[in-house]
Amino acid sequence: PAEPLFRSMEIHMAKKDIAMQVLQQVVKLPVVKVDREKFLVEKFSKELGHKNLNKLIEQGPATMLPKVTLDRVAKACINENVLLASGASILAGLPGGIAMAITIPTDVAQFYGFSLKLAQEIGYIYGFDDLWSSREELSEEAQKTLLLYLGVMLGVDGAGALLRFSGVIVTKKMINVVNKKAFTKTIWYPVLEKVLKVFGVNLTKGGLTKGLGIVVPILGGLISGGLTFATMKTMGERLQKELSKLVNYSEVQYQEDVETIRKEVEIIEGE
């Protein structure tokens, strides 16, 4: 289901090929699929009361609660997911064959699975729509959003601005989006390709496996709980900080984001 977007990009560099292969498989992990409605009810029913749950699902918590509350819940989600990932069994919940298919250690697959789960939860807190309109597959727009989540978490320049730009469109904020369609066509793929490249570099350098190649067999798992905790916590906090800017989003912030995206695309295309 995640293949159309990746295939359409037709990137032939080895690092990007590896990144696409890994992502195609990681999104199939059960832990990655977050039920937006169930998640929001679980996290905000106490704050809003049961009579406001329909509005919560329809409009999202960002329209009903102050930034301080959203930030608090998001940070709690980061801690919960980091602890869960740090203590999880490496083989827990993995469908048969996936670990073999992605040619990377199962613990690395699990790490990115939990990271994408956390990314969706943070996104839902700050107003993004449900990525899983079908529980079995991702739309192309949802694939782009997941890639941008990952890009922000990995510190890719321009990914945060582009994610907020797409978030403004999703949440229909009253921002004057000039030539949205034309602008979108020129900005999406350069930044998404860069995300794939950075992700691929992380994998081929061993990334979380402390410098060992991705094809080296892992016995017992090299990612310690401490390393998982530190790495995922940093990644989650990076995404939370960027999406938090969507609360009280202004025309000034929007114009800054557009300029950031334009400059980053120019840099990428000039490389």
How would you sum up this structure, described in words?
The chain has 271 residues and is mainly alpha-helical. The protein has twelve helices and no strands.
Q: How do the helices and strands line up, and which of them pair or pack?
A:
Blueprint: H1 3-9, H2 14-26, H3 36-48, H4 53-59, H5 67-87, H6 98-101, H7 106-125, H8 140-153, H9 159-171, H10 180-204, H11 225-244, H12 251-270
Helix pairs in contact: 2-10, 5-7, 5-11, 7-8, 7-11, 8-9, 8-10, 9-12, 10-12
Give a brief rundown of this model:
By secondary structure, the protein is mainly α. It is 65% helix and 0% strand.
| Global structural class | mainly alpha
Shape: globular
> Which sequence of SSEs, written as H and E, runs from N to C?
HHHHHHHHHHHH
The gyration radius over C-alpha positions equals 18 Å
| Gap from first CA to last CA | 31 Å
Name the descriptors.
single chain, 271 residues, mainly alpha, 12 helices
